[in-house]
Amino acid sequence: MTKINDRYRSFLILKDIFASGAYSNISLRTELNKIDSEVSKSFVTKLVYGVVERKNYLDYIISKLSSTKLSKMDIDIVIILEMALYQIIYMDKVPESAAVNEAVKLAKIVNKRLSGFVNANLRNFLRNKDDLMKINIDDEDERLAVKYSINEEFLELLKSDYDTETVNNFLKRSMDERLLNLRVNTKKTTKDSIKAVLDKFNIKYEESDISIDSLIVYDKVSDVVKSLFKQGYVSFQDATSSSLQDYIELNHGDKVLDLCAAPGGKSMHMAEKLEMGSITSCDIYEHKINLLKNEANRLGLDNINFQINDAMKLNKEFINKFDKVLLDVPCSGSGIISRKPEIKYQIDLKELKELNDKQWKILNISKEYVKKGGLLVYSTCSILKLENEIMMKKFLEENNDFNLEKFIKHMPTEKINDGFFISYLRKE
Prior knowledge:
By secondary structure, the chain is α/β, with parallel strands linked by helices. The chain is built from 18 helices and eleven strands.
C-alpha cells in the first residue's frame, strides 16, 4: 500500500480539482481533516492553492520545456510537473533537489513509465530557469492570461467593466496572501475583550476599516484564535461580507429572512445584533441546514428559525411577512478568486448568462417577501457589473415600488481580501 505523504496528498487533491471539477476549498478541507501535523497542513495548503492559483503560468512553462503538447500529456504527469515547478519557483524553504527527487518518486507511483520524462524536464528547467520563467508573449491579453492564470473570457469581462489599471490591480491583489478576518460575536463578548486577549498573547491585529465588528489578524490561526472560535466568541468571516450588516438598522421585533443562507455568516451576524425579533434562515439542502444549526449552537444563538426552502420557487407563506430580506444570490464568485482560484479559468460566458437568469428570478421572487417599508438587501461575492449594477438598474426600472438607498462595492486592496457588492433597496 502506497504511503500518503504531503506531496502525494497534494497530488490527490489537485487531481480531484482538475480532473473531477471539485471545489478547491472543499477538497482541501476534506484531506486536511486527515492530517494531524500543522506543518503538513500548512505545506499541503500552500502547495495546492499555489498550483491552482498559478496553473496557466506553470502550464506555460511546461509547454516551453517539452515538445509534447500539453493536451497530449498524461494529466497525472502534468500535475506532478506543476507541483514541482511551484515548489522550485515559489517555495523558498524547499530545496530544488528535493522538489525534483520527490516529483520523480511520485511519478514512479502514478505512472512509472514517465518518471524519466519528469526527471528530464525538471532538470532542464533548473539549467535554464531564468529564460524559461520569462513570458515571451506579445499580445497583452494572452500575456495577462498566462501571468495571472485567468481565462480570456473572464479577462474580457473584467476589461469591459474596468480600466486597465483597475483590472491589473485586481488580478495582482488576488494572488496576494489572504489576511485573517475575525468577526466578533457581540452577543457573547465585546470587540475590546477580544482585543485584550490578542494583546495578552502578542498577536498582531488591527480594526477593519470596512466592518464594525471585524478585526484583521496578521498572525496565522494560533491556538488562541482557535480557542476563541471554539468558544463562539469569534467567527472567520471576511470583512467585506460582515460589512453588509453595518448599514441595516435593526428594530425591536424585526422579522428577518435570509433566503440563501449557507454557509451562514450573514444570518449569524444578524442574529448576534438582533435584540428582540427573529431570523428565518433558509437553504434548499438539508445537510446545509444542519451546518447552519451547528454554527448557531457554537455561537449560542437561539433566535434563528431554520427552514428548507427553494429560493427559485415562490413561498406563499413568506409573502409580505418580513421587515428585512437578505438575498446573497448564487454568483460567479469573481470577487473571491483569492479564496477559490480555480474560478479564474472556469468562468464561462454561457454559464454566466444562465446564472444571471437565475439571479434575476430569485430577486423577483424575494421582493414579494418584503413588507411595505421593509428592506431588501441584494449581495454577491462578484465584481462583475452584469451581476451587480446592471442587475440593480434593470430591477429598479421594472419595480417602481423599490428605491435604492445605498450600494457598496468592495475591491481587494492591501487590507481587503475579497471583492463584494451590496445593494440596499427600500420598498415603499
